[in-house]
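Bug #77: duplicate submission created two jobs. Keeping one. Sequence:
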Amino acid sequence: MPRWLSSVERRTCNGLSYKGPESKKCASRGFESLPRLHLLIKEGIFMDMITLKQLVKEIVNKANDLKNKHISEKNAQVNYACIFCQNKDQYESLLAAVQTIGKVIEETPTGSLFHIQSLNTVAGNLRLLKIRKPDETRPELGDADFTVENYFELF
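Kept job's structure:
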C-alpha cells in the first residue's frame, strides 16, 4: 500500500476533518506523491510559476476526488489549498514561485498564506494558497478545503 494512502485512510476513517465553526467549511485532505512534480521539488530544482500551478491543481484534484468519495455534495468549491514542504530548499523555492502570482496576507507559525491570482481548478477558482514550512509530521504533498452547504449535517 502506498504511504500516502495510509495517511488518507487514517484521516478519513472517522469522517472528514473539518476546520473552524463556520457553517460552510469542510476540509477534505487529498494526499498523493506526484512522481514528476514531486521529484522536481524534492530535488531542490527551482519551482517556476507554471510548475507551481500544476502542483496546486494536482493537489486540489486529488483532494476533490477524496471529497467526492465521502460527501454527497459533488459541486463543493475549493476555497483553500496548502503545500506541505519537505525541506528548506523546497520551501524557499515555493515561496519564490508563489510570490510571482500573489502576496502574503498572513504569516503563521506553520508558514505563509497567500492571496493569489485566481487559479482555475477542477473544483472552481482558488484564491488562497498556503506554503507550509517543513514539518516531519506532514510527509504528505498537500491538502485542500472546500465550501459545502450542509456543513452541520455532515456530523
